User: Fold this.
Amino acid sequence: MLIDTHTHLFDERFRKDLPAVLERAVAAGVERVICLGIDLESSRAAVAIANAYPLVVAAVGIQPNHAAEAQAGDWDAVVKLAESEQRVVAIGETGLDRYWDRSPFPVQEDYFQRHIQLARSLRKPFVIHCRDAEADVVKTLRAAMPSNEPGASATGLRAVMHSFSGDIGTARECLEMGLHMSFAGMVTYPTAQNLRDVAKEVPLDRLLVETDCPYLAPQPVRGKRNEPAYVAHTAVLLAQVKGVSVAEIEEHTTRNARTLFGL
Ligand code: NI
Assistant:
């Protein structure tokens, strides 16, 4: 069994056939799908999908590229969802993004902090989007380590670097802070040898898989609309990279996801 730890099932590309998409996921061995909001509206939609389909659970948050367009009251509404909705298992997605540059960086940093604090106060994990901002993300996470809190036991952060695309140095720093590392379809692309080298170094007990659908479908379905069933292709590739069986990848990534997200 597999858990697709990062999807955007509220995307309009799933509007016509979501039940069929989820049936194919089950047929492909997917036991759970996490649907993450990127703003208030999609966070509400993620919760609604999770309430409608037992296969799906939700995460709520305002993604860095949507931070600037958030209206007054949006954040409070996200907090309310996180506090009151039973099927919200994580906070996010959040993080930092210097690639798209759609939100001023200080606004992104402010929202990143809010998500981290919310996750801590609700004792939920958080989900990190990082694009061309590895040093900034590592700096923020270091400052957020529970070991910085007076009287806290020095455990690591309960969080995941989603669709990781950074270098080995960043990966090592994240692993050292206790983070999980999730790989999406990108790791299967012929040109992504660097990423496969990083994946090879991630211990099996920190590894997660995701599709990030509807974006970036893995080989050999690249170019199609991505969907949770395709997470199996990424698992097969990771098995090759790690030199273990597909069953071992399934066993570890599923156990990791269940533990991290309390599933
Ligand atoms: Ni995403």
Q: What stands out?
A: Residues 95 and 129 are 5 Å apart (CA to CA).
